[in-house]
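Please, structure for the following, as tokens.
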Amino acid sequence: MSKLPNVTTSIFTVMSKMAIEYNAINLSQGFPNFPVDERLTDIVARLAKENVHQYTPMAGYPPLMNKIAKLTQSSYNRTINPDTDLLVTAGATQGIFTTILALVKENDEVIILDPSYDSYESPVLLCKAKPVRVALNDDYTPNWERIEKACSVKTRMMIINNPHNPTGKILTENDFVQLKKLLEKYPDIIILSDEVYEYITFEEKHISAHTKDFLLDRCVMVSSFGKSFHITGWKIGYTIAPEHLMKEIKKVHQFLVFSVNSISQFAISEYIDVVDVNLLGKFYQEKRDYFQKLLQNSRFELKPCEGTYFQVASYANISDQDDVSFCKNLIIDHGVAAIPISTFYSDHKDQKLIRFCFAKDNHTLESAAKKLCDI
């Protein structure tokens, strides 16, 4: 008997497999296709010949953890104790999975805001807890009245994703004001803040949960070096939480992966000293603007993108097909792969919207845009 009877192959795998099968340009799965910074690859090449291939301590390589603490201080003016508040994880997804397994119990409820990334619900179900899916507004802003109605004494956790995948929306100061009011009514709710695109925002800057005093004792923050440093295949991230929560998270982590890939931790520890994460927003804003310019003569209607490296587009002027069928035909007939937004909703809400990843080199964006403008 399956513990996850409704879980099938992810839409990301389906679309990427079809992209290979039909030799389509893959703007579906969220990974960059441009070269990794040579400074990082040079560090890895040198380290490969050094004694860095055995287990690191369970929570992480201490010099890296100290530098993450410094990065958190410089980015958010938050002081953390790397010994008690920090855990290096095998990607952000493992950090999310481990956090939920550690903190959510049977019959608890977890608020998930739709459209939502597909890794949130499964660990909730494995805990024999109940995922409570609450739709964002049509402009992807949180509907705080609707969220409050979904909360109860059974609510153990709420997951927020900021900047938001798949929509590129970021939370505002008012959103945090509303969140504070909500948590005053429900003092036992833990916030899991997925902030893997934290350094990729544009006109408006990212407001992190790290900066909100009312969250610091009841929030788990998840970050991703894979996203920030264009190394998604390394599967390395980190989680920050107050000691009383982190103690429980570490208990699960030590039996799930024990410790994370050693050479990647050593390499990133050195790389942090030479890279400026604050340049990421400018880099990806140029990508976003260029991709939008390339599509300005297409029949797609591009939605606002405030952060991440994803562009949501409406195809309502092109077809009446449901978004999954449209994406499959987009691959087969036009040679471009995208992700249907309905797959991020529990009720598969179809608004004729799809998601493109613009974390690609300019040649790839130009080639894809030419095909899309011919539709």
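The chain has a mean pLDDT of 96. The CA atoms of residues 44 and 170 lie 34 Å apart.
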